[in-house]
Design a protein that fits this description.
binds adenosine-5'-triphosphate, 34% helix, alpha/beta, disordered C terminus
Length: 273
Amino acid sequence: MSFSLAAVGLVHPNGHRALQDVTLAARAGERLAVIGPSGAGKTTLLRVLGAALRPSEGMATLLDVAPWQLGGPALRKLRAQIGTVHQSPPIAPRLRVVTAVLSGRLGEWSAVRALSSLLHPSDIAGAHEALSRVAMEDRLFDRCDRLSGGQLQRVGVARALYQRPRLLLADEPVSALDPTLADATLQQLVAQSESTGVTLVASLHAVDLALRWFPRIVGMRDGQVMFDAPVGDVTPQMLTALYASEGALPMQGTPDALPVRAAAVAVPRPDCL
Ligand SMILES: Nc1ncnc2c1ncn2[C@@H]1O[C@H](COP(=O)(O)OP(=O)(O)OP(=O)(O)O)[C@@H](O)[C@H]1O
């Protein structure tokens, strides 16, 4: 198993319950999209899967170990095998793009190699290759604070591709991208999963992108898993119930540009809801 959550609950320090009785597991190499309305608990779930948040209840197993029973060094080693693409990548503004990408492997390098890589980027070819997959190779030596939000988001994706983790978590990885780039970027994440066998879990607001790129869809609402189904089994009624209070089904593309797979499961268009 790549991960397994059993009856996981999470209550934030202010008393707010963000996850309730979440049971979810994935085999190595699976691709899951997590969808659901704002505040459903998608980010919180990904943070639990990244060993960044400790569940208040239940049991989490990540890459076959129980993270919260590990000591500091072993926990750091586990986290180094988990890649995260953040909605707004936590990249120091003055960092060069090349260094930001190479920092994807900091966790697996010795302190000496990590420091030396920050001062004198060594694997420039590797960074270039990762950036070329998100059409950012021409910005290799730019400073990150000279990039737009969407460009920075693609640098974050390149960093995760360069890291080659065993479990890749992507929290709204294409939220700042136009439809064409969003599609191409998800294609790269999927290609990485197919070529390396990394398990990919992405939270997505755009339902059409989730249905197009992911074989398994997890619908969350109010901190709970409402459904966990193969994409072909996801019905318009399930989506309508999931987004009941939203008014319209969130999509990246225009209704006329519905992807083949979404059309195949007859996803209701926003103007039909
Ligand atoms: N650090 C925190 N402290 C207290 N409450 C929090 C914290 N982080 C998130 N929450 C609350 O937990 C709930 C779930 O938040 P979460 O960010 O996981 O949802 P989400 O589905 O990712 O939402 P969105 O789609 O808007 O990003 C929300 O009600 C949120 O306000």
